[in-house]
Specification:
The radius of gyration is 19 Å and the shape is globular. The protein starts with a strand and ends with a helix. The chain is of the alpha/beta class. It folds into two domains: 173 residues, HUPs (Rossmann fold, 3-Layer(aba) Sandwich), CATH 3.40.50.620; 100 residues, Pantoate-beta-alanine ligase, C-terminal domain (Pantoate--beta-alanine Ligase, Chain: A,domain 2). Helix content is 40%, strand content 17%. β5, α8 and β6 form a beta-alpha-beta unit. The structure holds pantoate (PAF). The site of pantoate has 10 residues, from β2 and α7.
């Protein structure tokens, strides 16, 4: 049976024991509904650390819409089975009252351009909620390394900035997006798609692939990239698009001229499900693992 800890104080004590043994901690923070992307993070954490801690907490303060919070998939038993299969040492699964007890009043804001555009523009308060919960989780778990997926490009950039600004002693490791065989990026939210919607959602991947094709063929104008990607989404029947952009992976600013390390990024609604995805434009047949070389510099 995998060890599950619900109370923050118990988790702190457990971490104390691990540290007392001089062991390193690899931490994979999640909101549960684990998919192959999460499993790839766990596997890397397992390979690089003595102990692996996985957190499962659907963080209420990072949702900009209550219906999204209520409908977020929750499947703890299945998640525990998956975590157990990946040799996770401890699952930290606190309740909202443990993380935000009555009277809770401290919030962390990464107040810079990184949080203003892209998802920050369409999901007000989202990154404040993420920064707050990640700060709390890091303080409780005290990881040596923490693992995040590059599908959440902006989240990775924001967390790296948070870690740097607050002098947190943790390595942020960002790993490539895991895709289903047909290209759809794995996401907990995919569970909500009907078969037909899943087909429509594939156009997000197709739009990103088109951006890579344009880049490889020598196109430079980001306006052209954005127009072609939008056309593909619209043609597939996606009418609600939060953004289609080409950005620098570190600054998240949109250049006029694209370059191989720049990232094409999309957030769009398929039915009532909001999906995000991105890809480095790259120059070869495989997308460049754009953040991997940079994570080494964050400590
Ligand atoms: O990426 C997620 O699942 C969440 O945003 C995170 C980092 C676990 C914070 O709640």
């Amino acid at each position: 049976m995998i060890e599950v800890i619900e109370k923050t104080e118990d988790m702190r004590n457990r971490v104390g024991l691990i540290k007392a043994r001089g062991q390193t901690i690899g931490f994979v923070p999640t909101m549960g509904a684990l998919h192959d992307g999460h499993l790839s993070l766990i596997r890397r954490a397992r390979a690089e650390n003595d102990s692996v801690i996985l957190s499962i907490f659907v963080n209420p303060i990072q949702f900009d819409r209550n219906d999204d919070f209520l409908n977020y998939p929750r499947q703890l038993e299945r998640d525990l089975d998956l975590a157990s299969g990946e040799d996770v040492d401890v699952v930290f699964a606190p309740g909202a009252a443990d993380m935000y007890p009555e009277g809770y009043s401290t919030y962390v804001e990464v107040a810079c351009s990184l949080t203003r555009g892209l998802c920050g523009a369409s999901r007000p308060g989202h990154f404040g909620g993420v920064a707050t919960v990640v700060t709390k989780l890091f303080n409780i778990v005290r990881p040596d390394r923490a693992y995040f997926g590059q599908k959440d490009l902006q989240q990775v950039a924001v967390i790296k900035k948070l870690v740097k600004d607050l002098e947190m002693d943790v390595d942020v490791v960002a790993l490539p997006t895991v895709r289903d065989a047909d290209g759809l990026a794995t996401s907990s939210r995919n569970q909500r798609l009907t078969n037909k919607e899943r087909q429509t959602a594939l156009s997000i991947y197709k739009a990103l692939e088109r951006a890579r094709e344009l880049s490889i063929s020598g196109e430079k104008s980001t306006k052209v990239f954005v127009k072609e990607m939008r056309d593909i989404l619209k043609k597939a029947g996606i009418i609600r698009i939060d953004y289609v952009s080409v950005v620098d992976p570190e600054t998240l600013e949109e250049p006029d001229q694209a370059y191989p390390e720049a990232v094409a990024a999309v957030a769009a609604w398929v039915g009532s499900t909001r999906l995000i995805d991105n890809t480095a434009l790259g120059v070869g047949p495989e997308p460049k693992l754009f953040l991997q070389y940079k994570t080494q510099t964050v400590s």
